Amino acid sequence: MSEATTSANAALPEASRQPGGSKGVSERGFSWRTGLLGAHTALMYLFLFAPIVVLVAFSFTADPFGVAWNGFTLEWYTRLFNNTRLIDATFNTLLVATISTAIATLLGTLLALAMEHYRFRGRAATDVLLYLPIVIPEIVLAVALLSFFAFVFNALDALFGLRLRQGMLTVVLAHVTFSIAFVVVTVRTSLRGFDRRLEEAAMDLGANRWNTFRRITFPLILPGIIGGALLAFTLSLDDFIISLFVSGPGTLLLPVEVYNRVKRAVTPEINAISTLMLLFSMVLVLLSQLAQRQRK
Prior knowledge:
By secondary structure, the protein is an all-alpha fold.
């Protein structure tokens, strides 16, 4: 009799043997918890992406103020490409972002390798200083950079008679300053999950340090380097406060130019240039993902 009872209990579903005979989560199907979670997810996506959808839609509106939908038109994109001031500002912004990203990625990667592979005096202080551009308010960093450039330019004028002023060079240097920290943090994350035994095995087989880095270390940490470069590029593209402080008169940069125009009125041209920059950023992310998949 006991054997038959045991066999019957074993044949019953697991959910029916739970206290109260309630079914498991996988067998309940739709419930108020599932509906609440779905509603929360939908509201979250709506909160995040609704402004972007409105921005893209209103870049095609026929309304001259860009605040109402009065029909579809490409007029604002035509005007945008004929607006030399906005085109020059966009070109300067992309140029600054490209140069600063290249420098920050190179220096940040080397610094991350040094921080993870070597122990040296002042390493702890360097580690703390690296996080300062991330944690301090951007307005503080902007004022500090402005004061530093003013001090250096005055010193060069007094010592050598060089009369320098703020421009594209100061913007590039400022963007490199705050971008390095983000590159270092991203690359160090890749290095912490890196198996050092692979480097040791390569050296045991006769490879020198350069060949070991080129064939072993660099390919494995390349996703982290690409991620850091993309982060630095994106931060440089949309930086406004630091660019406003260190650009100087006569230097056209897109975030500053958009701000100056928005103070007067929001026009569909601003929506159009913002849409193009959004599309450009998405293409960069997709190319990065494709490159990483091909390497795998």
